Amino acid sequence: MKNIFFLSVGLFLSQLIQAQKIFTVSNQAYADVKVFVVDNQAYADLLVYKVSNQAYAGKNDGKWFFVSNQAYADKKIYFVDNQAYADLKIYFVNNQAYAGWKNNAKKHLLY
User: Environment class of residue 22 by beta-carbon count within 10 Å: exposed (0-12), middle (13-18) or buried (19+)?
Assistant: First the structure.
C-alpha cells in the first residue's frame, strides 16, 4: 500500500516537473529532429533559451535544458549545416522572456 502511494505521488510530480530536456546526437540517424541554427530570429521557427537547470526548463515553450545522457532526454536533436535539411530552424535568445514558438505548425516536432 505504501509503495502504491509513493508510486502515485512520483507519477504526479513527474507530470508537473516535465521539462524540455534535449540531447544532441552525433549522427542524424539517431535524431528525433534535425535542427538548423539561423543567424536572424526573423527566420526562426522557434526562439530557444538555454536554461542552466532542468527545473527551469519549459514544456515545449523554447526553454531547453541540454542533458549529458540521452536516456534523460525528451528529444534527441542533430544540428545540420544546411537549413534545407532541417526539420526545425531555431535562434538562441539571451532572455527567457523572448523564448517561444514563431511557427506553431512545427510545434508537434517537440511533443
Answer: buried
Stretches where the chain sits below pLDDT 70 are 1-19
SS3 percent helix, strand, coil of the chain, rounded to 5, is 35, 25, 35
Predicted local distance difference test score (pLDDT) of residue 82: 97
Query: What ranges make up the beta strands (E) of 1-111?
Result: 21-24, 33-37, 46-50, 63-66, 75-79, 88-92, 100-101
* pLDDT recorded at residue 12: 45
What is the domain partition of the chain in residue ranges?
19-110
